[in-house]
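Journal club side-thread
Mid-discussion, someone asked how the predicted structure for our own chain would compare to the paper's figures. Pasting it here so we can look after the session.
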Amino acid sequence: MINFEKKQVKIISIIIAAVFVFSIVALGVSQYQSGMAGASSSNVGIVDYSKLIAEHPGMQPAREKYEAAAKQIQEDFQNQAANMTPEQQQQFIEQKQKEMQDKQKELIDPIRNSIEEQVKAVADARGINVVLDKNNVLYGGQDITQDVLTKIQAQGDVTTQDNADTTSSEATDTAASSGQN
């Protein structure tokens, strides 16, 4: 068997301890660096949804249609209010409020669908798994708002195109059915 002197045992123990400490430090540094790399290539995206809604090409025409409908209801009420009882006036107001809620949903839903489609397209292209509204995020995430807005603006106002297609197809259906009668 090998006999070591006391001094040699101390040196070997120090070398083993140093290798052990160095290994622990190297492992910690490599884990820290891989964590930082993962953080910089986050797969969480954020968008400023209110900005996308406000700057959507279909928003101004939708707003104009909504305001025109509201103005028409106000004129109808002013014309008919004199001949109505207070109960009838209240029923009229409640009915028109419901109609305006439906009109708002009808006008805004295509805009929201368009935004959601473009957010998904941009997120898929960037390999993003989750997209959150910017107002719900305190820190981090990739802001993809401008890319989504660029795609939406390149797409144009699909909401009025859809409505024009619907209107023209309804007119064709009406003409076809009146021709058959």
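Post-session note: The two ends are 115 Å apart (CA to CA).
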